[in-house]
Amino acid sequence: MGVFMCFALQNITGYKFSNQIIFLTVIILLATIKVGAQWRRVNLGPTGWEVHAVTAVGSYVFSGTIAGINRSTDYGADWASVTSSITNCFVSIDSTIFAGTAAGVIVSSDMGATWTMLDSSMSYYITSLAVEDTIIFAGTLQNGIFRSENYGASWTAVDSGLGDFQNLVEAIGVKGDTIFACTSSGLIFSTNNGNKWTTISGDALNSLQFINCIASYNSFIFVGTPGGMFRSTDNGYSWETDNNGISFGTSIFSIIVADSDVFLGTTKRVYKSTDNGASWTNAASGLPIYPKQVFSIASGPNKTSGTNLYAATDNGVYLSIDNGANWEAENKGTVGNEVRSITGLGPKVFAVINGSPIFFSTDYGTTWRAAKDSGLVTKVNPNLTATSSGLYAATSDSGIFVSSNNGDNWKSINGGIMDTLHPLDIVQSGPNLVVSTVNNGIFISLDNGTNWRVASNSMPKSVPALSIVDSSVFAVFENGMYLSTDNGENWNKINNFYYTGYFNGQTGIVSANGVLFLSNGDAGIVDTTGGYFRSTDNGKTWIIDRNWSIKYGGAAFSLFAYASDIFTAPWTYLYVSTNNGDSWNKLGGNLESIISSVYVNDSSVFVGNFQGIWQMPLRDIVLSVKQTGLQTSPGSFKLWQNYPNPFNPATTIRYDIPKLSHVTISIYDILGRKVKTIVNAQMVPGHYRVNFNASDLASGVYFYRLNVINPLNQSQNFTAVKKMLLIK
């Protein structure tokens, strides 16, 4: 029997994309950035509700998440964090456990207490692992397949026979002496330990591009695809579709065989087959509706003599002790890692985290604890507003609540008409509360929520968004912007534009030195060539500033004003402008997933993303950046020859990126050993250059390699290598 974990590649990168992202003209950062401080993840406990992989070894259970590996020593009852690297898959040989991460394969020989990367040269994004006897195979996101015959101490590329786009491997499996690999361009196999690969051309698989996962049992091979299940009884030479009982269009992310039954992890549910895949039944009782994916399923012993099943979902780990008939959440001690928003007032900081209680700090973010949430009855993440009179929560399914003790206890303030409405945003303007609703316009309360009334019958009703700047309240609709200067009691329309973006009261319109900044959120207004807009006349007119060094079409999620500075996070980096947006400086390094929220107090900068809360002390921020004037995007990927060449000890490497891409540039010596990685970041289209200082290297020939992964279109990946000479 061959059983192995896998999941759909499009869900493992830690990024989420809008279908309205547009890339046009951009301004590019072209110089070295000096950073005096780096990001520190705030420790809220074991984070990781977006679980990509799970495995069990005796009473030990391991979950691989976007925030690292969590370990349970008691069959999943309690969890503790043991690593912080994005983890996608596991295998084990006896008591040695291997994990595939975003930076290579790590190994533990003490049941997960400590982890080590034995071969640092194999620092690729690992998507899948499989074992044949004691030989380990690793599939990567872009670099093909690797093999280790010494328990991960070293790895050898085994790519002979790989076709176009088959270096993107989604899963690997073993059946007898045959190794199978699921790639972005079909299913391949090897009968000689990966020395030579052959593409399977069975009729049913001919039209398939992506194959997500594979497993075998007795004479059967099962593969899961974005469109359903296939089965082979002749070692992969011919295939038949087996979707009897599976909902049409279901994407299969993982397959496992436990006690002779076959289980599928799919979109929103688990399926089970007791007849080798001929028919399937729903085995998802107890799994919540919320998960979009069941990424992985694993089996292991329970406390008696039975078998536990563990399901890795984007809402945590679930356990079944009755062979999939029922499931229960097993996430004690863990915290959801997807931060929806961060807000605060003075020394208080509050964070809304998907699937978890509200977390708060009363000492500028030094220490944190979870609020009790008593009385906050809601199934969706609330939109918080912190004011001097209390902490307010707008929940679209349960109304409005207020807490006077940092979220431990809540009181409903849904008086009168608000009982039947669905609030989105809430702000406090002077003594009044102002609320926007899903489809009923804006409401105002003059008595702290005891009674509510319509703010204005002249405004449209379509999903408005609110933002407060000083004593002004802005309401943004699809057909224009409205302004109130008397705490929400009267409103005037100040412009006409078609707004299709999104923001909330914490990250929408902000102000510095009399200049307003509008977060584009998703698609844009009037002109979609940029992610941010500025107004110098209190919102009557808005312009796209074409000299901004960080903008690009769409994906501008967060803005925050602190004193006279503007902070923004258009992607996975945070930027700050100290001159009203004329130039922008990058703060810290790449946080690897899209930043959803920014908050700054007198002590620190806080950002939230899909991996948790990150903090940087204000006193440590020292940076310097150069920028160019407006440039058009390049038409194609290109790696230029370094200049000067030969060089001693520094040289400049130029490269062109025409599409949003994850870019790495690594340096190799004459023996092919990686000696440095000088670029590893998500980049927008543009012309770039990076300085390489080789003062710590010996004279000789070196190679630099540009590797580009386009997360929106894998067919647009690119690799190029050039030679350079260091003479000392």
In short:
This protein has 728 residues and is an all-beta fold.
Mind explaining what this structure looks like?
A four-stranded antiparallel sheet has the order 1-54-53-52, with no helix packed on it. The chain has a domain at 638-726: Immunoglobulin-like, CATH 2.60.40. The relative contact order is 0.11. A hairpin with a 2-residue loop joins β45 (509-512) and β46 (515-519). The chain contains no helices and 61 strands. The chain is globular.
Which terms would index this structure?
728 residues, mainly beta, Immunoglobulin-like, 4-stranded antiparallel sheet, 61 strands, 43% strand, globular, disordered N terminus
Helices and strands in order:
Blueprint: E1 40-41, E2 51-57, E3 60-65, E4 68-72, E5 80-81, E6 87-93, E7 96-101, E8 104-108, E9 126-132, E10 135-140, E11 145-148, E12 156-157, E13 169-175, E14 178-183, E15 186-190, E16 198-199, E17 213-217, E18 220-225, E19 228-232, E20 240-241, E21 252-258, E22 261-266, E23 270-273, E24 281-282, E25 294-301, E26 307-313, E27 316-320, E28 328-329, E29 339-345, E30 348-353, E31 359-361, E32 369-370, E33 383-387, E34 390-395, E35 399-403, E36 411-412, E37 423-429, E38 432-437, E39 442-445, E40 453-454, E41 465-469, E42 472-477, E43 480-484, E44 492-495, E45 509-512, E46 515-519, E47 532-535, E48 558-562, E49 565-569, E50 574-577, E51 585-587, E52 595-600, E53 604-609, E54 612-617, E55 638-639, E56 650-657, E57 661-668, E58 674-683, E59 686-693, E60 700-709, E61 718-726
